[in-house]
Amino acid sequence: MAEDKPDIAWRVIGGLVGLVTAWAARKILGFAWVKATGKEPPVDSESPEVSMGEAIGYAVVMGVGMSVAQIVVNRTAKKRYDAWKSVKQVSQGH
Length: 94
Description:
Elements: H1 8-37, H2 52-91
Helix pairs in contact: 1-2
């Protein structure tokens, strides 16, 4: 049985999508944090100037938010890439 080789184009596109998603999610979540708390996001969670609750809250918001963003964007991008790839193969007669 032949082993499926990873699609190099998807790996490159997926990597770029991941970078852009992480950057955008960080900006959006930071903006939402400021709107919700009235304070800038903590830069150094280990700083004594940042309360334990604020540090943990920010970590939870960022962790969950980044994970959800990655899942949604990666699944959407993969579906669109697969659809484009199948249309391309049909048009080439494969």
